[in-house]
Write a structure and sequence with these properties.
inorganic pyrophosphatase (n-terminal core); Diaminopimelate Epimerase, Chain A, domain 1; 11 strands; binds manganese (II) ion
Length: about 325
């Protein structure tokens, strides 16, 4: 991040009175945690804040204080628009309700397109929430227990409980700082990451019963029928892909989740040294070297064959990342 851009962003936030904060579709803990962490800190400083998320707040994150304030769509006038944890503007979905171009983009995805007037993109950060935990106090917006809890949740979920290869001493120090503000690590960890609904577990069962592998690639499929049978109301894989990546010998794991309207949602997870983000980008998605996703149109079997072929191809090339800006 460039210091002058950090300073300009802070000045713009202090100048603005009505601030709109938006994050990405199918929000995860970092999307909601960043939204709430920044929104609550700005509100505590006397700003009029509106937080929006096209797909609302998942039930696994509704325990966070302030989550009931998050709306589906922007309404009214704003002086400043901030987009969080989103690599491009289309990721925000319908939440902006036709509102103008973003003033500030804060994100950590390598696939970020720098789509705003001011762009703060730090690909060495483990979560957007980690960036905000450092930036907000630096800008003079102090954190309290509620905003610290939201940001710690973003860090916990994006790092799968501090397990990803991008964990640095800075991540742990930042997390410790949030704990000092009253964020309860073990409770937040359990609520956002460990606890699962009965229906999600039943759907995992359906997915696990169809596990397959070839050349270090492990995959499975969740059909619309599996989801219906399990009684699972989400349209995602309930994070089953993270379980697949724990399988010994799995260099890359892939999950295919059938959607209505002939669409397939794909998630990849890769072991350190492999980069699945370019693969996801080719299929119209994006993400991180170790965790990416895409959603494409087509019949399940055709999509599956094409994606697996290219994934296995990637593994054959075994394209290790030349340690680029990883601190
Ligand atoms: Mn994130």
């Amino acid at each position: 991040m460039i210091d002058t851009v950090v300073a300009s962003a802070g000045a713009a936030l202090h100048q603005a009175q009505r601030i709109l904060l938006a994050s990405h579709i199918r929000p995860d803990g970092d999307a909601i945690g960043s939204l709430l962490g920044m929104g609550l800190a700005l509100a505590a400083a006397g700003k009029q804040v509106q937080m929006v998320s096209s797909d609302g707040v998942p039930s696994s994150l509704q325990h966070l204080p302030g989550s009931e304030l998050i709306a589906y769509r922007a309404q009214g006038d704003f002086d400043m628009l901030v987009v969080l944890d989103s690599s491009d503007l289309s990721r925000v979905g319908s939440a902006l309700n036709g509102y103008r171009e973003p003033d500030l983009n804060i994100d950590h995805h390598v696939t970020n397109l720098n789509f705003a007037r001011l762009n703060l993109v730090d690909t060495s950060a483990a979560a957007t929430a980690e960036m905000l935990a450092i930036l907000l106090p630096r800008w003079g917006f102090p954190l309290d227990q509620a905003s610290a809890s939201a940001l710690l949740t973003g860090m916990i979920t994006d790092t799968i409980g501090f397990r990803t290869s991008n964990i640095t001493p800075r991540v742990m120090r930042t997390a410790a700082g949030l704990m000092e503000l009253g964020a309860d690590l073990s409770a937040l960890y359990f609520q956002a990451l460990t606890q699962r609904s009965f229906e999600a577990m039943r759907m995992w069962g359906a997915g696990l019963s169809k596990l397959a592998r070839q050349d270090g690639v492990v995959w499975t499929v969740i059909s619309l029928e599996d989801r219906k049978h399990a009684g699972y109301s989400g349209r995602d894989d309930a994070d089953l892909v993270n379980i697949l990546s724990a399988i010994k010998g799995a260099q890359i794991s892939v999950i295919f989740v059938e959607q209505p309207d002939n669409r397939i949602k794909i998630s990849w997870r890769a072991q350190p040294g492999l980069d699945v983000s370019a693969l996801a980008l080719r299929f119209g998605g994006g993400g991180h070297p170790a965790a990416s996703g895409a959603e494409i149109e087509g019949a399940l079997i055709e999509v599956q064959n094409q994606v697996l072929e290219e994934t296995i191809q990637l593994l054959r090339q075994h394209h290790p990342i030349v340690s680029e800006s990883s601190q």
